[in-house]
């Protein structure tokens, strides 16, 4: 069943580094870097770069259940840290995984087998709302967005799932190397991601709408046409726009910067079914660029995007060279129906669209 469009945009902010001695992340945690926390029943996967074949680093993990679905739902984004690969779309992978709460419970208590015909749970049975990407407080929660469980390093060293589980890997994941040794994959410093609603960041947009209404009333009363206000500054706003256009070459980047000006430190934007915020002109045939779902053949919809401020956070834990990930924005499109085969143990690959930043130094 397709989910309705997300009401409003959620903004992700860096909320402090994850200290493995104090915090233990889980599949309920929204985070940057670290090792991926897979859902308990999902086979761990280590994707490789489509250009150079190197193992990809884990960039972002988002827990994003849908309010019309009984499934726990995850998105993991990976990217190639190679100097020649970071900005190419083929050097990024996004994997979606899902499972029922009953499957999680069965994984935690293996001595109690899952009933053959488990009745589907209502979304409200385990997730009050999807407005906060489904993050919820549990009895063992550590208070910073992570459910206490075994350390991710221990989880990475655990035995892989049986061969039967691996046989479910879809054809769109044939370039993934299952069971890749984590020692061969660079790990980025982990940070919690906190979530706020964009509407709560400031009232500038409401003020501009009010100013536009006053302007229309003035024009109607006086019988003159002044023109629409730009940035609440009248002609001054138009002059500012012209300067920006001359510097960057088009108005798309200007609109991008204006939209994030209330919170330039945002590292992620989430609005499933909404409109992406392009940093440069998108292809005129964008609808054709985004392919159909590789699993069900249905259409895909925009879900989230990574923002330029994230780039400066992507540093290797081993003290090696910084990850060579330079991008303007990475847009993620997922199956509109969020299709999932009951009992599947393999993540489904979704689609990334990468745009380079016309002025990356602004965010350093």
Strand and helix map with partners:
Blueprint (H helix, E strand, L loop, with lengths): L9 E8 L13 E2 L12 E3 L9 E7 L7 E9 L12 E9 H8 L43 H6 L5 H4 L9 E3 L12 E7 L6 H19 L12 H14 L2 H10 L7 E3 L15 H4 L10 E7 L22 E7 L12 E2 L1 E5 L9
Antiparallel strand pairs: 1-8, 1-9, 2-4, 2-8, 3-7, 4-5, 5-6, 6-12, 9-10, 10-11, 11-13
Structure description:
With about 375 residues, the protein is an alpha+beta fold. The chain has 2 domains: about 10-200 and about 265-364, no CATH class; about 200-260, no CATH class. The protein has 7 helices and 13 strands. The strands form 2 sheets. An 11-stranded antiparallel beta sheet has the order 12-6-5-4-2-8-1-9-10-11-13. The longest helix has 19 residues, at about 205-220. About 35% of the residues are buried. Residues about 115-130, about 135-180 and about 230-250 have low confidence and may be disordered.
Short description:
The two termini are 42 Å apart. This protein has helices at residues 101-108, 152-157, 163-166, 204-222, 235-248, 251-260, 286-289, and strands at 10-17, 31-32, 45-47, 57-63, 71-79, 92-100, 176-178, 191-197, 268-270, 300-306, 329-335, 348-349, 351-355.
**Biggest sheet overview:** 11 strands, antiparallel
Which percent bin holds the helix content?
10-25%
Element pattern in H and E:
EEEEEEHHHEEHHHEHEEEE
Total count of helical runs of at least 4 residues: 7
Distance between the termini: 42 Å
The largest beta-sheet arranges its strands as 12-6-5-4-2-8-1-9-10-11-13
Strand fraction equals 15-25%
| Nearest-integer average pLDDT | 75
| Classification by helices and strands | alpha+beta
What number of domains?
2
Rg on CA atoms, Å: 22 Å
Are there runs of 5+ residues with pLDDT below 50, and where? 116-131, 134-180, 228-249
How many strands in all? 13
Shape: globular
């Amino acid at each position: 069943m397709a989910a309705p469009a997300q009401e409003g945009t959620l903004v992700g902010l860096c909320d402090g580094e994850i200290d493995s001695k104090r915090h233990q992340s889980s599949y309920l945690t929204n985070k940057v870097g670290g090792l991926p926390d897979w859902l308990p029943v999902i086979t761990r996967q280590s994707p490789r770069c489509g250009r150079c074949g190197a193992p990809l680093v884990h960039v972002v993990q988002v827990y994003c259940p849908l309010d019309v679905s009984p499934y726990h739902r995850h998105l993991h984004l990976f990217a190639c840290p190679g100097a020649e690969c970071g900005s190419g779309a083929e050097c990024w992978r996004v994997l979606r995984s899902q499972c029922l709460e009953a499957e999680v419970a069965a994984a935690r208590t293996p001595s109690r087998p899952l009933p053959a015909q488990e009745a589907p749970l209502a979304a409200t049975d385990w997730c009050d709302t999807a407005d906060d990407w489904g993050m919820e407080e549990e009895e063992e929660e550590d208070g910073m967005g992570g459910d206490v469980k075994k350390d991710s390093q221990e989880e990475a060293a655990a035995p892989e799932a049986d061969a039967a589980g691996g046989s479910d890997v879809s054809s769109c994941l044939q370039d993934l190397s299952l069971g890749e040794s984590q020692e061969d994959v660079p790990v980025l410093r982990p940070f919690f991601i906190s979530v706020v609603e964009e509407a709560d960041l400031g009232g500038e947009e409401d003020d501009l709408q009010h100013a536009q209404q006053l302007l229309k009333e003035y024009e109607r009363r006086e019988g003159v046409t002044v023109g629409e206000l730009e940035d609440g500054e009248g002609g001054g706003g138009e002059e500012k726009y012209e300067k920006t256009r001359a510097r960057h070459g088009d108005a798309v980047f200007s609109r991008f910067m204006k939209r994030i000006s209330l919170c330039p430190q945002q590292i992620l934007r989430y609005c499933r079914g909404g409109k992406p915020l392009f940093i440069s002109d998108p292809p005129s045939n964008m609808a054709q660029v985004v392919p159909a779902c590789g699993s069900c053949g249905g259409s895909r919809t925009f879900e989230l995007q990574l923002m330029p401020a994230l780039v400066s956070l992507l540093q290797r834990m081993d003290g090696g060279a910084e990850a060579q990930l330079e991008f303007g924005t990475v847009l993620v499109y997922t199956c509109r129906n969020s299709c999932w085969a009951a009992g599947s143990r393999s993540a489904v690959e979704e689609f990334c669209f990468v745009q380079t930043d016309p002025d990356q130094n602004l965010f350093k």
